[in-house]
Amino acid sequence: MLRSRRPLHRRFVAIVALLWLAHPVPGWTWGAGTHHYIAQNYSKHLPALMTGLCAYDSIVNLHVTDPDTRKGSVPGESYRHYIDADYYPAFLAGTLTHSRATLEAQYGASVVLNNGIVPWAVGENVATLTQQFQAQNWSAAALTIADMCHYVGDINQPLHCTQNYDGAMTGNSGIHSRYETTMMTSHIADLHTSVMPVTYYASAVDAIFDNLTASWAGVSTIMAADNTAKAASGGSYNSTYYTSLWTSTQDMTRTRVDAATQMTASLVYTAWVDAGQPVVPGSNAGVAPSAIAGARLDAGPTPFRDHLTVRYAGAGPLNVDVYDVRGARVARLVDGASGAGSVSWGRASSGGNVGPGLYFVRLTGPNLNVVRRVTLVQ
Ligand SMILES: [Zn+2]
To answer: How far apart are alpha carbons 55 and 192 in whole angstroms?
Structure first.
């Protein structure tokens, strides 16, 4: 996640204020601990045919903070670490385009750049990684994975997804470094990520935006936690404050850090599948590449108002479930089926209990995990 996320001209006032308060400048930067944690844990999720990449874990860990280091020397780098998603009214309505070109046509390229471009930076990483896998250039791929680990980590820090990145809009000024640096430095050792399945993304950028939406939901959690902690400590940023801040945010924080490790592994897996599943030297034999062949999941139309049609196929037993943006399962549509089939879901079939918003339809089966994103509108 992070560090000073803003381009210099936007950070100037904050930096001057910090200097005036005699805070050491490093205090404004992300204690790199969370980035390193994600780099050290992503590869545990890789499927058996890709475990050879674990030989590069130390390279990924060594280079995971390079994107922050580059900010001073590579023009435009600083914009690649965040997106002020809630600047765009369409984001709040669940209809924000995932196309940078479309957004630039609407707002102008400089506005889009200033509001941050992290989703497309990750999309570029996936395309680069696919080419490196095709060329079987594993050392170059490790450096791309390090970059991807970094940017995916940034996306999963909710304060990298909002205009209110330092709490100034809600009376929570200074929360950025209190949350991501001071608090996290004390609690890295409390994190524990379990092995989770990877997902193949038909569209990496769509998946990245889905992840962004889930991450952004943590902004209000952090601001409320700051208010609660300040009330408990009498306004001092002492151990009472930080204990309270961690208590209120740890569930969300663990979810986001775990999601960053899983998403990085899934993006690496997606690039490998798109590259034609080249043999990764040193990997365990096991899962047959053909396991995912013939698997299919379609869900549409999206956006939809009343009925969503879900078509699936694959070697069973297959399950199809629907999750909301917070990761809660709201419906099981298929339970242990095999072959191909079709089901529908929507307001009527759920007794009117589902509201408008973003949902994820997930097909799971042996060595199979495919997700489609759909939007239910009013
Ligand atoms: Zn960053």
So the answer is: 21
